[in-house]
Amino acid sequence: MNKGAAGLASVGLLAHLPQSLSAMAGRKAVRMPIGFQSFVVKKEIAENLEGTLKRLQGYGYEQVEMCSPSGYVKYGFEPLAKYSGQELKRIIADSGLDCVSCHFTMEEMKNNLDDRIDFAQQMGLRHMVFSGGLSTDKADELKSRCETVNQIGEKIKKAGMVTGYHNHNSEFDMKIDGAPVYDMILKELDPDLVKMQFQTAAIRSGYKAADYFKKYPGRFISAHLQDYSPQDNTKEVVLGQGISDWREFFAAGKKAGLQLVFVEMESNPGTLKNSVTYLKNL
Predict the structure, then answer these.
(1) pLDDT < 50 stretches in the chain
(2) Is the separation of the CB atoms in 99 and 120 below 8 Å?
(3) What's the rounded Cα separation, in Å, for the pair 41 and 23?
(4) For residue 270, what pLDDT is reported?
(5) Distance CA 155, CA 48 (A)
(6) Is residue 277 in a domain?
(7) For residue 267, which of 247, 245, 242, 246 has the smallest C-alpha distance?
(8) Which of 6, 90, 182, 250 could form a cystine bridge with 29, CB 3.0-4.6 A?
(9) With a threshold of 0.85, does the pTM exceed it?
(10) Is residue 131 part of a domain?
(11) Rounded distance, CA 164 to CA 155, Å?
């Protein structure tokens, strides 16, 4: 066989490789929009909303998850409370970002739900996420709180949106009958009314998102991403430089129903740029 024929034969063999092998080199682990949580840049947002959003969009982020300005006044979001949902949506869009998810406090969801739903609809949100509020190691109290969240979730569902619940490490560190409180939360929350947003900081307490994703398929709509130093798990590092296996995370996330991820490098906002670069190249 001459060299030309051999070359053509090689091309033919490559063309008939299994699709899974031929596509492997170009396959991306992250096949969803990558966002950041606004809480980590609250100081910058308060001082220069438009400029901060455009800077983060320039890093490569496609989404921002906001915090309800009226609910987060005491956390530094007071300068944003002057905007209507429509105005805030326009400012975010002008920066080149989308916002379909927002955090709300338990207090405002319980006491001011109709107004918060109106704000969310003006914003064009898909997800209204409880930023916490279920942490207790008293079973009866936890059941009561979960029932309240279910009732709110039903009203939000009727308004055309999805309710989410965001964990912190306390839901794993607290135990009821020897199991993490988080496990009981998953049992008590109605999966048709309330989905979950997993904060990966739980790995510091020994709990991996991937394990919960596999155990509870369809329960998770989004996640907050953090990574920690192998030498000191109290120190945040750029995603991919720490103790988390992100390929395992995203592979399991498909089964979980994961739609969105938000980088939340709370103690070190300077890692935001390199983290989105890592995810886009994963």
Answers:
(1) 1-25
(2) no
(3) 38
(4) 80
(5) 35
(6) yes
(7) 242
(8) 250
(9) yes
(10) yes
(11) 13
Residue 79 lies in a domain: yes
Tokens 């607290």 belong to 174
b/e 161-198 (16+ beta carbons within 10 angstroms → b)? bbbbbbbbbbbbbbebeeebbbbbbbebbeeebbbbbb
How many whole angstroms from its chain centre is CA 84?
A: 24
pLDDT in tens, 62-77: 999 999 999 999 999 9
Listing DSSP states for 80-120 in one string gives GTTS-HHHHHHHHHHTT-B--EEEE-HHHHHHSHHHHHHHH
- Token pair of 58, please? 């320039």
Which pLDDT does position 268 carry in this prediction? 75
CATH number, position 113: 3.20.20.150
Q: E strand or H helix at 225, and its extent?
A: strand 220-225
Domain holding 35, by residue range, is 26-281
> Does a structural domain hold residue 17?
no
Summarize pLDDT for 134-175 with one digit per residue, the tens: 999 999 999 999 999 999 999 999 999 999 999 999 999 999
Q: What angle do CA 251, 62, 278 make, to 5 degrees?
A: 50
